[in-house]
């Protein structure tokens, strides 16, 4: 999956509504894909725990195994690029919850 931090998504939306675009299709994401196992490993790093990945290792019917946004057009039209990496975004969320 291509996970995007909420601040990056909101910035892209802000630019869309403040741009004179009549109609267009824009992919918004990070341009990087992570498996669920990779996501769990990054979460483990963020929270300081070794999280075990348990999987039946079976493919689900009609499952799309790889999704990665091509953000080239959004960058060209909006001058937008994501600023948050996965680990940074998850760390920000974790730290905001830990300090609450």
Structure description:
This protein is mostly helical. The chain is about 45% helix and about 0% strand. The radius of gyration is 16 Å and the shape is flat.
Write the topology of this structure.
Blueprint: H1 6-17, H2 36-47, H3 72-78, H4 86-98
Percent in helix: 40-55%
Number of strands: 0
Number of helices: 4
Radius of gyration: 16 Å
Strand content: under 5%
Q: Based on Cα principal axes, name the global outline.
A: flat
Order of H and E elements: HHHH
Distance between the termini: 29 Å
Structure summary:
The protein has helices at residues 6-17, 36-47, 72-78, 86-98. With 100 residues, it is mainly α. The longest helix has 13 residues, at 86-98.
Features:
100 residues, mainly alpha, 4 helices, 44% helix, flat
